[in-house]
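Q: A reviewer asked whether we had any structural model of the full assembly, not just the individual parts. We don't, so I'm hoping you can provide one. Inputs are below.
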Amino acid sequence: QVQLQESGPGLVKPSETLSLTCTVSGGSIRSYYWSWLRQPAGSGLEWIGRIYFTGNTIYNPSLKGRVTMSVDTSKNQFSLKLNSVTAADTAVYYCARGGERWLQFDDWGQGTLVTVSS
Amino acid sequence: QSALTQPPSASGSPGQSVTISCTGSSSDIGGYNYVSWYKQHPGKAPKLMIYDVSERPSGVPDRFSGSKSGNTASLTVSGLQAEDEADYYCSSYAGSNNLIFGGGTKLTVL
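A: Here is a predicted structure for the entire assembly that you could use as a starting point for your response.
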């Protein structure tokens, strides 16, 4: 079982870019698929996108091209950038490890709250 | 893609069984066998309980089972225990490299 830890600013201004990094420990990022998900307060989960260690990515179509994910295998990290944020992007953001396929998430980070506010 | 539909709440007494439904469409649940279920305690990260409709990850008690009929998936918790009280979320592959979730069900152990 790997451990995941999200890091990044907890406050982002409207129209700016949200940037988060997930550090993987206890295993190599050169396996499995890695995803970002988010959960607004009192609401359900939303899948944001997933990346493979090769850099291959797929994103949730609903985020309309605002998402970019990247991976740094030398640091065992992967990252999320979400641009043009609004208050609707305020949520707890989770990074997670995919299982046999990227469609389920076996291990999760503890989550980090990102608030969009001026 | 619309979210999957779950009842907002469910409840049962210790020892009883409870089933939580997750309704979608032929474009998601009905079209693929990629339904997962997650358990989430307040303030904590979700935990995978079921994947591929009915598969249990290692360490998940066999009191938890999943099934699917048509466009509806179900999670059944047998022999309810106090620690089963949590929020439960379903997810399904929705085609075109998209994954969607249900709105969540709060399970109360009476």
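A: Points you may want to mention in the reply: Chain B touches chain A through 25 residues (CB under 8 Å). The radius of gyration of chain B is 13 Å.
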